[in-house]
Here is the input.
Amino acid sequence: VLDEYKIKRPVMGGELRADAAMDNKHDRVLPPVLNLLTQPYYAPAENPVLLGAAKLKIFRCGKKVATGDGTLGWSLQTEMTFLHIGGLEVLLLPCELFPELAYGGYLAAEESATGKSPSSNPTPLCKIAENPDLLIFNLVNDMTGYVVPPNDWALHPTQPYLDGAKDRLGRKHYEETNSLGPKTAHVTANVFRALVEQVRRAQNG
Here is the structure.
């Protein structure tokens, strides 16, 4: 029985994936219209490790620019793209976004690392676009690290950005070590809001 299970299990997994790929119940025909708007922007970098990696070109990430922003005075130059394919809206980001920054569902004050309310976080991107079906793809054209909700941000008290932390509730945090800093979420939302406003003005003629 065990041998039979080992043989059939991969086949079952493959069949499930094939069925999902071939499922066209939710397919729709899109009009042949393609619009693309790319916005360069500066993301303040508070993380000296990522700044060092950018300078040494250890991995692909934005160009290091002295903008005077943040505690270190440096930012990474990067970009986001708002893509329209027919009636479908797609956002291409250079980072790894926490889902709640896109769709909402922030932790309450008593559940968050900082004890701050969700109001300290930016408006979720889908709400900015007024489109719950907005598609978001991460790590496109660049790699600028994780984007963490500001009210759930925690750094190691003595080795920030080098070692993971435990927050006031005992939860482990490691994403912050690979993040530009706590301001990234608001910067991302603000740049996207400006993109959406520009697109909506063009759509409304």
Helices lie at 2-22, 48-56, 99-103, 125-129, 184-203. Residues 2-22 form the longest helix (21 residues).
